[in-house]
Amino acid sequence: MSTTFQINTATSRANPTPAPMKRLTVPKIRARKSGGKVDDPLVMLTAYTARQAQLLDAHCDLLLVGDSLGQVIYGLPSTLPVTLDMMANHAAAVVRGSYHAVVIVDMPFGSYEQSPQQAFESASQLLKASNAAGVKLEGGEAMAETVAFLTRRGIPVMGHIGLTPQAVNVLGGYGARGRSDAEAEKILADARALDEAGAFAIVVEGVVEPIAISVTEAVQAPTIGIGASAKCDGQVLVTEDMLGMFERVPRFVKKYGDMAAMITQTAERYAAEVRERSFPGEAQTYQPKD
Question: Which terminus of the chain, N or C, has less C-beta within 10 A?
Answer without folding.
Answer: C
